[in-house]
Amino acid sequence: MKKVLSVFSVAALSLSLVLAGCGGKTEGQQGAADQGGTAAPNARIGMVTDVGGVNDNSFNQSAWEGLQKLQKDLNLPQENVSYLQSTSDADYIPNLTQFVKDQWNLTWGIGFLMGDHVKKVASENPDAKLAIIDAEVDAPNVESVLFKEHEGSFLVGVVAAKMSKTKKVGFVGGMEIPVIKRFEAGFEAGVKAVDPSIQVVKVYTAAFDKPDQGKSTASQMYDQGVDIIFHASGATGDGVFNEAKARKAKGQQIWVIGVDKDQSLTFGDDITLTSMVKRVDEAVYRVSKDVIDGNFKGGIVWLGLKENGVGLADTSSKNVPEDVLKEVEEYKQKIVNGEIKVPETPQQ
Q: E-assigned strands of 197-305?
């Protein structure tokens, strides 16, 4: 039976992120069943990226930033947090295995595509502790962190619907996998909740690491009259921003909605309308610190609007008017209260 961990409140999540570890003994690589133990101030935490790479301006980068913050906050040696970059799915098991065999205290797999690989390595190494973002792995020595992307995407769908001048908006997805389908479903539901007549153009590029494909896809969408594109495509989305920047320079009034991180910090406020932030960095920080404190639990954690796991970027007010943000907040409260149930799969 799967063990599901409940995250009760924003306060509880925040508290777990900032508590400092106690005790001074170093924790060895213990069995997953050992839930207690002393803190491990010299713990080593490793991370394996998916093919998007650690500089994807998206969830891989956010995960790495979470580990870097952990290292600084706990004053760990810099070499005690590290990552291995995957250039193809053939790298996943060798990279995961390298950290496990070297007895790192926790090994992260970042991304849905690594789910089966984490499962295999975990089952072959029951004394190792692993964690994964965006995939559900049913194993006692794995903690799976998943996000309710559809809830956050609903909110940026509301923004897109309120801000579109052409009544035509776009969604660019990477691979057609459940996590990206949640982005698509929530976004379209948010758009339609505001105005059912708005057209949502949807294209999947089948890649998370192809900026050129993102650029050409965005170009086609903008040519069709789309004036706002929401992307959930990792580094492929860099190309969406590049195309938008080129068109904006020529005076075209178009926007991009970023994903995972506040992408206005990378690509600028002039083209980034808002971003649907997934707090991957905070989740990686929290679970990693649990291991260091001897509190590894394993199981499955879901983070949505109620848990402050997803939401709009803090910089949204730069381009989104106050009245629109107020309406977004009203929708958010309805979702949190259960008045609106956001679909997890696109409606046919």
A: 199-204, 228-232, 255-260, 272-278, 299-303
- Distance (Å) of CA 167 to CA 81, 189, 200: 46, 15, 9
Q: Are 343 and 150 within 8 A, CB to CB?
A: yes
Q: Are 39 and 294 in contact (CB under 8 A)?
A: yes
**This prediction's pTM:** 0.82
What is the distance between the alpha carbons of residues 67 and 109, in angstroms, rounded to a whole number? Answer: 13
Which H/E stretch holds residue 281?
A: helix 280-292
Cα(146)–Cα(344) distance, integer angstroms = 13
Q: Is the pLDDT of residue 18 over 90?
A: no
DSSP 71-137: HHHTT--GGGEEEE--SSGGGHHHHHHHHHHTT-SEEEEESGGGHHHHHHHHHH-TTS-EEEES---
Distances (CA, A) of 196 to 158, 190, 200, 249: 11, 10, 10, 31
Among 194, 179, 72, smallest CA distance to 134 is for 179
Q: Is the pLDDT of residue 4 over 50?
A: no
